[in-house]
Every structure is written in structure tokens, then in C-alpha cells.
Design goal:
Rossmann fold; eight-stranded mixed beta sheet; two-stranded antiparallel ribbon; 8 helices
Amino acid sequence: MAEKVRFPSTGGPALGGAVDLPEGAVRGWAVLSHGFTLGKDSPAASRIAKQLAREGIGVLRFDNLGLGDSEGDWGDGSFSRKVLDTAAAVRFMEESGRPVRLLVGHSFGGAAVIAAAHLAEGVRAVASIGAPYEPRHVEHNYDALLERIEAEGQAPFLVGGKALTLRQHFIDDVRGADLHERIRTLRRALLVLHSPTDDTVGVRNASQIFQAARHPRSFVALEGADHLLTGRGQAARAARVISAWADPYLA
């Protein structure tokens, strides 16, 4: 069962989300950050959240600016904005009496939750799935547009039938993001999940994240999974691993 929610973004426009409520005894609460342009209802985000809820962990998953049920213009967003809005989601949950101890992020969202943990004092554990070591890795999605954006300041960006606008400030923001330092100084338990055969974000990214991290840190290879976790049972498997690993940090 999912509870529809809305809360203010860092810049003002309301963000739409869903809280997948725990089944049975409540073990804890989490916030999940979706991939680059995927949204809270993408297969990976929704299946992970629902499986965690079956395991007793309630999860808020929300649409980033201008996507799905959220207001605003996606083109006004950035990696930094995604990080700040993830921290805002944690505060929203805490203000509703649901203290968040776990952050989960998929792909681009995996990088965002590592950075957002620094802004969320109560968070004790972070799990990244198929995350890039450098946020600028997303440039492979729009490298053909870079010349036009640098000349005109923006360009139309079509993703999965969605017409978005990509602006220069987004490119500058991801290029300036230093995830290495955020990982090194995380001071929270970190679980890195990655498929060895991920051909979108190569597994070398997981190695770099793991090597930059300090203990407690763990790595799990999602054998046979694709980057979007679209295969049967792939997202649920990742969620079950996260659930078992996060248990000591949820109390």
C-alpha cells in the first residue's frame, strides 16, 4: 500500500511522492532516489521500494523536479538540486514522525544519496545501486547535444518519449561535483551494489566508490542484472540484500 504525498522542493515547486508503507512490524524508514530521468514509478524504484516495504522498511520515493507528479521544470534541476531535494525528502519524513535511517539510490540517484547523507544527520546507512563514481558520467546520455548547448545555453532533450530541456547550468554542475570527497568523508555504513555486466554504468565505477569509502563498507555483485533492473526478480533481489544488510542501522 502506498500513501501519496507532496512536499516542497528546495526551490519551491512541490514534489510528488509515494510512501510504500511497511507490512507488519515497522523496522525503519528510508528515502529512495531514482535514476537520471526515470521517476519514482520506474520499475527499479517502485519494485525496490515495494520489496523493502514487504520487509518492514517504509520507503518514500519521489519524482524529481518536473517529472511525474512533481511540479516545476526539469531543466531547472541539477545534481546539486537532486541532492538538496533528497535531503528535503528526509526532513519531510522526519517531520511526519518517520525518522529516516537509510538512503537508497539507483544509478544517478545512487551518487545523489551519497552526497545527501551529509545533509541528513539521522541517516546511518546508504545503499547505492549501479551508481556512477563521477556524476558527470551522465554526459553519455546527451553528448551529441553538448556543442549546441554550449553555443545556445540549452537544447531540447528527448528521453523515453519525454521532451525535456537540458541547460548549461546542469552540465556545469555535474562537471563540478566531487563525489570522491563525499564518499571518503561519508561516516555512514555504505553498501555498493552493481552488476558486473552493467553496460550503462560499468562495474569499474563500483570499484572506485568502494575503494574511496571507509569502513563499514560492503560490496554485492548483482550477477546477471541489467542496469535498469528490468529482469524478473532483479529489483526485488537487490531490495532483499539491502534489507538484510541495513538491519543493524535501522533501530
